[in-house]
Amino acid sequence: MPLLTNLPPEIVYHILGYVDPPDLAWIPRTCKTLYHAVSANTPLFKHVYLRHLDAPSGTPVDWERSLKQLVQLRRLCSRPDADDKKDELDFVHRTAIELLKNASAASGDSVEAGLTANFSPSRNADILTEIFSVESNQDAFLCRSFIYERARAEFHARDIRYWHGPPKPEHQKSAHLHCLYGVPLLFAYPSARRRTRHNLMHPFACSKVYDLRQYTEQNQWGPFLNDGSMRVDWEKVEAILIVLGDNMTNLGLSTIRMCKTFCTIPFAGTWANSWKSHHLSPPPPHELELQDRLDPYGITGVWLRIVCFMDYTDFFAYNFGSDEQPPPHVPRPSIDVGQATRLIIMRIFVTSIEKPGPEDGQELPVVHFKGVSRSLDQSFDENADSDLRGIVRLTPEGEVRWTTFSIFGGVERWRSESVQVGGVKSAKGVLGHWFDKDFDPRGPAGPTAFWKISDKEPSALNEAGEAELMTQVDVLDGDYETDENGDEDDVEDGEALPDAPSPLSEAREL
User: Fold this and answer.
1) Is 405 helix (H, G, I), strand (E, B) or coil?
2) Whole-angstrom distance, CA of residue 242 vs CA of residue 258
3) Strand, coil or helix: what is 124?
């Protein structure tokens, strides 16, 4: 039998193309012949890359460097102890961002169907899902933001270094990873053995979301840094994700198929262009090109929205009820009070497109849209249904910024500022803050999110179609409201929390 090194080079290259990435690093060390076969062999590294990862769409890739980063990511994340890998947060964040940037649809059908946010499978996302399903990796990389440090009491409350100044880079990177992971981690310690009522994250996330000091003209009252740059504050987005995710879980909304993409599936479309339409076959290339020109952000269609808010008495007392207000750099105490939750259907369409302004990202235009929103509950609240208008643009750093206005009787009443997690046309959705359109310093304000469930033209969803949609969601009369104390009061230390009964348990899957 001939030796491998005696085979013709083209056969050797073909064989090496089926080697797993970790083994490919060892092969050049075996002998000089294989060293020369692998060294600087760009076609070989490309072949191995495309066997294990998504084919990048139009993005230049350093095939060898990217494979080495993947091997390094897997190796360090395989360390069993979280403390042994916490110092690698910067590398993990950078590598995960690159994997999602290069993510594209893998072969196969969409994992979701019907009226929900469709996204096709992705090898890159599957790799990240596998890595971050490990609790020690969640602890080391996804739970490192400031609110998690508060919940774990990892510092002395009087240590001014932890309260003063702009957000720390490590806090922002961890929160960003958590938002891309997409499933809110609702306990300060991810380990199932340490999930008790004493380390719930919801009260600490609420202390950030409902603190009016977080809403300033410098950040346009949105989830942006308070420095006028309009760069995303990922710790704010993370707090929104936790508050909404916890409320949806307690109400059973996370079991509804339309909502699973938002809060139960890791890395569910958290990359650009991950949204997949409901067309049985894709439109011809010339139609796709026209769609991209007329609607570059994928705005037109039907979106599901969730809005949460505290009773205004509780909200006002939390922000103004004490004569001794904490200093600006000190967060308010954690808060655990009842909140109302409202599900809303939005039907929107593009109305105009214009060139980006000097303060916008220049890669895409500014797009205006209009539409209507309808509440999915039957409270007959005067604020439930409204007309809509909005603007979508890029921030200077390239994130997708959504601004919406709710219009009642021709008068704008509420506004929201949000960011689309994952980028342009991501299936994950849009998270942000809602507030009075005049930036009322007395509030109210709160968290909101919306994600696409259909790309049908709004005119195509007529009254009959809307009625059919409404019957597929079992909704309660009045607001959905969480229990002020929650089910956690009956849970002993170390005991797992029971699954909350679902008010939508009779809903048919969409």
Assistant:
1) strand
2) 18
3) helix
